[in-house]
Each structure stands twice: as C-alpha cells, then as structure tokens.
Amino acid sequence: MADHEVVQAKSSWIWGWFSWSGSSSNMLRTVEKKILSCLKTAYRGWYVDIGPVVGPADKIWTISLNEESPKTPIVLLHGLGAGVALWCLNLDALASQRPVYAIDLLGFGRSSRPVFSNEAQKAEEQLISSVEEWRREMQLENFVLLGHSMGGFLAASYAMHYPERVKHLILADPWGFPEKPTDAVAKANLPFWIKAIAFAVQPLNPLWAVRVAGPFGQWLIEKTRPDIVKKFSPLVKDDTAVISQYIHQCNVQTPSGESAFHAMMHGFGWAKNPIVNRVHKLSDDIPITLLYGSRSWVDNSAGETIKQYRSSSYVNVQVITGAGHHVYADKSETFNKYVLEACALSDSISPLTSSNLRSYAKFTSDKQIDTTLPNEALETQRPEEQKLDTSESTKI
Questions:
Q1: CA angle, corner 59, sides to 54 and 64, nearest 5?
Q2: Alpha-carbon distance values, 25 to 248, 253, 381, 383 (Å)
Q3: What does the alpha-carbon distance between residue 328 and residue 291 come to, in Å, rounded to a whole number?
Q4: Could you tell me if residue 67 is inside a domain?
Q5: 112: number of CA atoms within 13 Å, CB side?
C-alpha cells in the first residue's frame, strides 16, 4: 500500500495546510500493531477480499483470536471513527471462551474506502452487504454479533436481513435506535458537545475537524476528548498517546465510511431510518442483549421499547453503572462478563425466549463466567500479526 504523498499547491500555503494529513496506511498499521501487542492472546490479522461490493475491489481488514475453539464465534463491529484496536480491553477475555473476529468496517480503519451512496437506505444496505460478503468469504455459518454505537445499528440491520446467521445479537450503547425527539427535548437532554457537533456537521462529515487540524489532529483529540484516551490506560499503561494516535490515523484517511454515516444520520445523534420503526422485521428467534452506559448520551429508552414489542422473545436490557457511551472500555470487566454470559446462555439454551429471562440470574450464578485468562494464555508469546504482501493492501 503506497503512502499518501504530501503535495502542496504552489499557489497557496492554505491548500498545503489542509491537504497535509500527517497520515499513511503504514502509520496506521504500526500504531494498531503497537496497541494489539499489549494483548496476552495470540492474534492474526489479514485482508479478506470481498470483491466489488461498493468499490471495484473491496477488502476488509480482519483480526482473529482463538480460531481453534469449537464454540460459536463472536464477531465485533466497531462504532464511528474507531477500528479493531479499540476492542483491546475486551479481546483477551472474549477469546478465553470462544473464537473472536473483529473487523474494520468497510470505509473505516485499514479496510478499503470506496465511495458510498449519499442516500441513507442505500448506504446502509452497502455496509450490510459488505459484512455479509465478508461472512461468506470467511465461511461462518452463524455467530454471535456484537456491535457498538453505529456498529450496533448495523448489527441490528444485518440481523434483519440475515436472521439465520445471527445466534445472539448484542448491542452496546447502540446509535440510531430511537426516533429523533422534539427540539425542546433534545436540547434539554443532550450534552453541550453533542449539540455543538450536531450543529456543525449538518453540511459536513462528523470528524472533519480532525482533518482540518492537519498536523495538530492528534493534539485536538487529546485535548477535546481526554476521557477516551484515559479509558485504555489499564492496558497501555503510560503510553496513552498511542490511543489518540490510533484514533487520529483512523480518521485522517479519506472519510469514506464517515460519509456513509453522514448519509444515514439525522442530526448526528439519530438515524434517518431508526431501528425502532422496523424492529418488527427482526426474527422473534434472535435473542437480544442490550448493554447501555448509565452516563451515556445515547437514549436507552429504545431498549425497553424493543423489550415490550418483542414480549415473547429474549430481550435482556442491562444498564452498566458508571459507564458512558464507550461502555466496552469504561467498565470493560463488567461489559465482558455480560457478553460472555450472553454467549454462554445461547450455547446452553436454544432457542432462547422471554421465559428464559426469569432464570437468567440463576444461570449466571451457576455458570460463574470467568473473564480472567488461564495461565497457559498468559504464558503465550507476544501476538504476531500475520505478514502481509503489501500489494494486497487496501486502496485508501
């Protein structure tokens, strides 16, 4: 994969500033590998060629752990502006029980960045099709599907289109579920920074400021959202700058998937086609676990709405105390515990129904899910990323 060249227009220093991103696919690869080197579990990473789904030759960057396990795998879909490395607080725990696959969604991270439709429904369908083509190439019959934020929105949509593939749907503080409330209610409930972003991004892609900041993009992330960086300190120790560098590198590339999100959003906090308006399309046989953060800006009322609508289906809504929108990182141990319990429950009882909710507490007490790693996992050598032929890299 060729690095971006810095080309400055001779006629304008302003153009030089805006076109300079301080980014390259190699820099993103390096910082991702640095984060994942903190894992105790061996992993491999490679590109999955999914063909001409949106662009002429799309590829999905994929990492996997514990592929040898015979249990049902879990597939992770990240949120807006993120990538596979931000699951670093969850990967070891989840892989201790079953195979784990995390992907950079098409248009994000190290995956291909094609031009998506600017129509909400079409952009959503393109993203969902890319996940399904990835599944076909991976030859996964079914799996537990976990999505955070925008990834939760796409996970729910995928489950509607391909219900036979989803054994359990786990939604972590999902974006795009409720309808957009009235302006008065929205202004009263949303934090100031969300209101500011919502106003600013109406005509622009949501993370435009990171690119406009040029060489100061990483500094901008560290100063405006220091909370995100600090969440990962238990794993990366004193090198928290690697997180802001990773987020910066993910988002100074061509804003392909970000443009798809822009097409789907209705004022940043909501979707043009909210999930609650089509929850009836979800198969009754698919069990759903929703994990919200008690301090998140996301409206969690949709969880109870879904639970009421699917009265005969398994819908388990949990609000994790002290967690914000990034619930998987804010309270990672609690989050991992809930995810592993959901997976184990689906392994033990099929099909899951609403009647199983009454026995949920007893089941989790009896199973005593262990989110710590066995000694042999701790003794494994440092994970190594599979060597890649750079000719197979995505075209950014």
A1: 135
A2: 12, 8, 26, 21
A3: 9
A4: yes
A5: 24
The pTM for the full model equals 0.82
Nearest of 46, 90, 92 to residue 66 by alpha carbon: 92
In a domain, 246, yes or no: yes
pLDDT of residue 332 exceeding 50: yes
Count of all residues that appear for the chain in the document: 396
- Residue 127: pLDDT over 70: yes
> Prior bond to 351 cis, omega within 30?
yes
| Domain assignment present for 222 | yes
DSSP state of 390: G
What is the per-residue pLDDT for 229? 73
**Which two three-digit tokens encode residue 259?**
């443009």
**Which secondary structure element, helix H or strand E, spans residue 275, and what is its range?**
none
**CA-based nearest residue to 113, from 95, 126, 101:** 126
Range of the domain at 354: 26-367
* CB burial of residue 209 (10 Å; 0-12, 13-18, 19+): middle
Q: Count of H helices and E strands in the chain?
A: 18, 8
Q: How far apart are CA 368 and CA 370, in angstroms?
A: 6
Nearest to 209 by CA among 120, 90, 326, 81: 81
pLDDT above 80 (res 385): no
275, part of any domain: yes
Per the structure block, which two tokens stand in for 196?
């500011």
User: Which residues is 100 bridged to in the sheet?
Assistant: 65, 74
User: Considering its fold, how many domains does the chain have in total?
Assistant: 1
The domain that contains 265 carries what CATH number? 3.40.50.1820
User: Residue 90 and residue 368: Cα distance in Å, rounded?
Assistant: 18
